[in-house]
Amino acid sequence: MSMPFYVSPEQLMKDRADFARKGIARGRSLVVVQYADGIVFVSENLSQALHKVSEIYDRIAFAAVGRYNEFENLRIAGVRLADMRGYAYDRRDVTGRGLANAYAQTLGTIFSSGGEKPYEVEIFVAEVGERPEDDQVYRLTYDGQVADEHGFAVMGGAAEPPTTYLREHYRAGMDLEDAIRLATQALGRGEGESRTIPSGNLEVAVLDRTRSRERKFRRVTATELGRVLGNGDSPAPVPGTSTDPSGSHDPVAGADTGSDVPTPEEPLTGEPDRPGDPPVAPPIS
Known about the structure:
- Helices cover about 30% and strands about 20% of the residues.
- The strands form two sheets. The protein has a five-stranded antiparallel sheet, with helices on one face.
- It is built from six helices and ten strands, in the order αββββααββββααββα.
- Helix 4 runs antiparallel to helix 5.
- The protein is α+β, with helices and mostly antiparallel strands.
- It has helices at about 10-25, 70-90, 95-110, 160-170, 175-185, 220-230, and strands at about 30-35, 40-45, 55, 60-65, 120-125, 135-140, 145-150, 150-155, 200-210, 215-220.
C-alpha cells in the first residue's frame, strides 16, 4: 500500500500565494487616485471592449487586475448582489463596505480550498461620498484580505515604481485633470526607466460626486483624455467642411460634404443625379 503524498499546510498556502502573485504580476498596473470631486481610475488597457473598471451601483465602482474571466465573474456577482439588496431593502443599503466584505469571503474561501486553484486577481471597490472625507476605497487581494486605501493606490504588474512616484508627487485636493496626468505619469514609471503612454492605450473612469444624477460613474472619453494629456491623435478633417484645410466645399454635388442629406436621384431611373444634367421629363402615356 502506497503512502499518501503529504504537504504541510504552511507550504501549501505559500505555494498557492506564490502562484496567485505571479499571475497578477504578469498584467498591467492600475492606479486609483482620490481628487477633489471624486475618485479616478487609470489603467493601461489596449482593448476597447474588455474593461478593467466598471460600475457596480449608483456610487460604487469596481476595478481589477489579473485574469479577465475570473474578475469578470466577480464583477457580475457584485452587480447581482447590489441589485438584490437595493431592491429588497433600499438603495442606500448598498455600500462599498458590504460589497468588499462579500468579495473578501468569496476570495478567502476559494484561496483556502484545496479543490480549485486560487483566483489570480486583485480588486478595488470604491464608493464616492457626499464629501471627500466620506470617500471609501477598499483593496482586496487574492486571499481575501481587505485594506482601506487613502489618497492613492496601485495594484498589478510592477506596482512599486508607480507607488513610489505617487508617494512623492500626490497632493490632496487636486482637480480631475491633474489627477489623470499624475496617474498616467505614475503608470509610465518602471524599473530605472520611464515612458509616455499614449492616451489611446488608457482606460480612465471616474466616480464624480458633482453629477446631478444618482449614478456617479462615468468613463472619460478619448477626446477628453487626449485634450488632458496632450498626446492624443486629432481626428482627421472631413472633406468639404470648415475643418478641411483645402477649403473645398461643393454644396451642389453633396457627395463629399459629409452631410446627412442624400444625393438627389433621377425620377425614373433612380440613379444619382449628376450636377449640370438637364431635368428628365416623364414619358407620354
